[in-house]
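Session log. Operator J.P. requested a structure for one protein chain; no other inputs attached. Running the standard single-chain path with token output.
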Amino acid sequence: MRPLLLIVDDEKATRDALCAALEETYEVYPASNGKAARAILESEPIDLLLTDLRLGGESGMDIIDFARQLPTPPLCIMMTAYGSEAVATEAKEHGAYYFLTKPLNLDEVELLLSRASRAQELETANRELTTQLHPAGGLDRMLGDSPAMQGIFNSIRRVAPSNATVLITGETGTGKELVARAVHQLSERRNAKFVAVNCAALSPQLMESELFGHEKGAFTGATQRRLGRFEEADGGTIFLDEIGEIDIPTQVKLLRVLSEHTIQRVGGNADIPVKVRVLAATNRDLEAMVQEGTFRLDLYQRLNVISLHLPPLRERQEDIVLMAHAFLKELCRDNGKEEKHFTRDALEALRRFGWPGNVRQLRTAVEHGVVMSEGEEVTFADLPHYLVAPNNDAPEINSSRTDFALDNLPSLQLKYVEQQVILQALRRAEGNKSRAAEMLGINRRTLQRKMAESPQVFQSYSD
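Structure written below.
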């Protein structure tokens, strides 16, 4: 595809000569004045702008100023018959790539545009690479007007520039990884790697090799040396999600990394220095685990230098509507739908629900509505069944209790009560199905069967 070139000159002869000379190499857009130039810049993704300094009553400097404010600005070149060192300096201060003096030498113009085109390609590639490396973009993907979330945002801004280890706590689905990415993006390590590790997804046998790497022949199947995630993140940030799932032997090795800033690969003896910032997250109560003897106190103290706690969505209801609207816009675009809006009853259903799966569940519910809706509105009937069932009008059961009086819940159907009791048990067991089944006095297989009967209700706790 040929680069798009906008030529702005009020002299028709000059404009036509440039168009004729360059139209084989570029997709040329001519404009005789500033108004026409701005209209083209707003409607077309112009790559290169070649503008005269004097355009009747306007200045080409104004056109460059306008172009440089666009989301993807073109590379700008100024030309004039009234050249001087002062004008050239001013043009560069306005963002011009180069300054040409009339009468123009067409060979010189073509060479300059070729160089400018290559420079623009490099700038575009660099911008795309930056987007790939930093998809989270600091705080711009985190939403919340509630005092609790504003406090989190302020804490992230204060913590990010330091090298301190951060422990992020909160229920499943509250957005702990987004917090970690924001801390990384707002730190001096933003141009280095952010490496995320889901500790809950790794068996104890694989954990050590995944984190620290292994040498060739360290175990059966180790046919070559493998670098671990700490070495991969060297110079950047490593995010250890679900840190409470790491077994005691690996905890000991992790403590050594935090205290000595070195690792040893499995099967190796060499101390390998690593300069990595550690961010960790958990939905479990690490203090309770320390008391139980399942998590080391010294490791907990090393991780908990700075603590950031994300409140559950049910405790910040003022954020639900804000987030629902943001998800709606994003998910309409992602699913190839025209922009939609919620009906009043749909928005009220979202606002009143307890959201045991937090932000993740809210996003899933909005996507369900986007996919199922047929017109310009996401209606009450388009939402997941656990939101549209008649018993959704019932008051939410307090998530901190497992006992409640049925006399206070006359409108609840038996199925709804059962679902809420199971959800409470799962929350108290921090998603551990065996512990939840024990609390409920049923076996794990029965619990899994009941969860399978209502997959949307329990989607946040599915394997």
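Operator note: The two ends are 46 Å apart (CA to CA).
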